[in-house]
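Researcher: I've been going back and forth with a colleague about how Cation diffusion facilitator family transporter might be arranged in three dimensions. Neither of us has a model we trust, so I'd like an independent prediction. The organism is Ancylobacter crimeensis, in case that matters for your notes. Sequence below.
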Amino acid sequence: MTLISRIALVNVVLSVIVLGLKYLAFMLTGSVALYSDALESIVNVGTSFAAMLALRVSARPADAAHPYGYAKAEYFSAVLVGVMIVVAAISILREVYFGWLNPQPFDAAPLGLAVNAGAGVINAVWSAVLIRTGRKVRSPALMADGRHLLTDVISSVGVLAGVILAALTGFKQLDLILAGLVAINILWSGWKVLKESVAGLMDQAVPEETLKRIRGQIAAEAIGAIEAHDVRTRQAGRVIFVDFHLVVPGEMSVSEAHAICDRIEEALRREVEDIFVNIHVEPEVKAKHAGIPVL
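Model: Here is an independent structure prediction for Cation diffusion facilitator family transporter. You can compare it with whatever you and your colleague have in mind.
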């Protein structure tokens, strides 16, 4: 089992545990705010399953039907995360509305608050693991799940403090106000996840820092060529695609030009993991004198 597969499996298990803890906290207190916290954890369970499935699909090797692989499957998982976040926020706002019309008492039981705090600690540690691993392996699904969990942690801290304050002051409506704020925060989180996922589906270019590394390797390894121009990149999940035109002297043989291409491709694979390179060789009359000069 790969690292990503293990992370995805643990993610599912922990999301179920956290859901159970947060629902128990709600049952012990009757707080609508804690209910909203538990409802968001239901989303976490669903999205963790979706992420696990998407990661399995994205790991499949390229075949005749999908010659560029299945890496984009992770973006569909991230889109699903965003949609489910929005649905959860709407459900919470519904509970706030009916709770405001028909207020219900709640009990800030210390045990319930402690259970909710424990669930928050688990989420805080695990969100850091997901984000760090997602960045390392360039996985949109893991990063989307990690960022959502981080948002959940922040809202949980606010909810917990607010419930305690509501119990101490007797201002019961504060419980509902906090639940509404959680819903708004969740909506913002869902919008960011959807925005990033759609950018990936639209073949967004790699980050500027990665592009600089790619251009630097091309300039350093294209010795014998004249220039490289029209460098284009796109990212599909953890896979990066690069294509560009390499201008060589007109008298250069095919085998010599091919050797330069091999050297560039090998250097790029050492510099960037999971990269596919496509080079179009052109004679010097095609030089634009505006691309990457060879060092």
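Researcher: What would you highlight for our discussion?
Model: I'd start with this: The mean pLDDT is 82. After that, consider the following. Residues 247 and 286 are 7 Å apart (CA to CA).
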